[in-house]
Structure formats: structure tokens, C-alpha cells
Amino acid sequence: MLRTWTGARQRIPAVCQIRLLHNSQPVSSPATEASTSKAEPDAVVEAPKKWTPQSKRTGLIALKRGMTSMWNDQGVKFPVTILQVEDCQVTANIKTPKPDHTVYHAVQVAAVNRSPKSVTNQMQGHFRKAEVPPKRYVKEFPVTSDAHVPVGTTLSAIHFVPGQYVDCVAKSIGKGFQGVMKKWGFHGLAASHGVSVSHRSAGSTGHHQDPGRIFPGKKMAGRMGGKQVTVQNLAVVRVDTALNLVYVRGQVPGVDDAPIYIRDAKKVMDIGRHNAAKGKEEKILPKGVDDLPFPAGTDSLAKTLPPIIEAPAYRRSPFTPPE
């Protein structure tokens, strides 16, 4: 069961379970299906899609709003990063043939509305075709063929279920040109007599006449940070459906208000798919998560859920065997 908060200090038992989150479309009753079939004999009522171990969903674009602290059921304090999903909409579905006679499937997502004056004419036409406002950030997420989302769909923070694990991709904070002590953690030379002003240098970097060169990958002084970094296997501990907030345990690269690309944890899902392919009956999703919103967690689904949803007891590692 999940926990919901309706006040600052009032805690009420949950009225919904995670297993209900996979269904983003209402299922029609037998009476409704009968009436539909009478009115339209040729109409076919399709059952809502459901997530499978072979499915790969799209990710979301969120903004990093800062960090705070939370406490688990045992009273242990742990850090969390708050990510906000702001005006995240689907702008395109991509299907491209590949040389190996397969098809590349992807969903293009855009977030954060901006003034049309600051958008190029080409992008204005692209957003106009998708019938969405001009956006600031655009990102393409590879998906499986069954995980395409209709263009124009507004995605919500409930796309990620509390208790699951996610990967966060962002540009790290740039720190400029740094020496080996700050960049790589070298302890430096002895700061004593005879070393002069070289106590923060890297020391010897070359070799003998053979090979007579420096091997690629040598740790030396250079630019630090300012590049794309992926932090894997972060646990989602809370989702705020009212403010579209996702609370992930641990740190996320980037400065505040920077775009963060969130997706389902790749390693955790791949391990589950590998075990499922071998016929092992092993739970792919973490403890307490029965299903995922598929193909995506929409804004209409978020309106049917409590304002705050918390995850079950947090496990130390996503690779711990389920209980």
C-alpha cells in the first residue's frame, strides 16, 4: 500500500495501490461495450496496453529544483533531489529503418514553454504541426514499437512510480581548467625542502625511449566538469501529482533549474529482461511496484490519484533479490 499526505502533519492510509497506475485509460464495462457494438457494428474495442518486461517506455524532461532531506520508517535521514516536470508534451513519434532491416522507434518530448519570438522558424513549424506551444528543451527517447505515445499528450510526474529506479542524465557543473589534485584526487608531491613550488604537480608523466610516448587516457590537468553525466539506479521515493514533482534519492548532476532527462533504470530493466529470456521467474520491478503506467503517465491519470504518493520501504540496492 502507498501513503498519501493531505496535510502538513496528517498521515492517512492510502486508498490506491501502485498496481492501479498501469491503466491510463478507463476500461469500459460489458454494458458499455454492448451498446457500442450495437451502435457501431464495425467498431472494435481495444483493451488498454499493459507494460511487459520487453517494453521500453519514453523518458521525461524535468527541471532540477534543489535538494532536501527525508526520513524513512526507521528514522534514518537521507538526501533527495527534487525534479519538476513542467509542460512536458510529446511532439513526435519517430520510426526509422536501420541497415540491419530493423526499425528504430523513438518518442520526441519537449518541455518548458517559451515565447515564439525566441524560437526559430523551423522549430515553430515543428511545434505548430504537433499542435503544442513552443518549447525550450527537446529530447528524443528510444522506445519499443508498442510504447509510442500520441502527439500532443501531456506527460506527468506520475509517469515514474514511487519505488522504481531511474537514470538521470544532465550536464555536470563546469569547474574550468583544474590540476591533477582537484580533478583526479592526486595527493601531490612532498611539501618539504627541496621540492620548491612543485608540490601540487603531477610528477613524472613520460616513459623511457620505448615506447617514447604517453598512452591515451593518462590522468593529467585539464577541463573539469561541464559534460554530460549519467547517474544510474536512483530510487524514486515520492511523487507529487499536484505540483508534478519527482523526489529521487541521492544527487543529480547539474545546477538548479537545469534540464534533467529521466528514464527507467537501464541496468535494472536489462537484468530483468535477461532473466525473463532464460525462463527465470524473477521479479523485474522493485518491491512494492506491481506495474508501470504504459505507454506513459499522462496528466489525466495524475488527476485521478492522490496529491502525494510515497514509496514503500527503501532497499539498499536495486540488485538485491526480491523478498
From TrEMBL:
Keyword Ribonucleoprotein (UniProt): yes
InterPro entries linked: Ribosomal_uL3 (IPR000597), Ribosomal_uL3_bac/org-type (IPR019927), Transl_B-barrel_sf (IPR009000)
Protein's UniProt name: Large ribosomal subunit protein uL3m
UniProt keyword terms in alphabetical order: Ribonucleoprotein, Ribosomal protein
Gene Ontology molecular function: structural constituent of ribosome
UniProt GO BP: translation
Location of region: Disordered: 26-46
Family note: Belongs to the universal ribosomal protein uL3 family.
GO CC entries: mitochondrial large ribosomal subunit
Stretches with biased composition (Polar residues): 26-38
Keyword Ribosomal protein attributed: yes
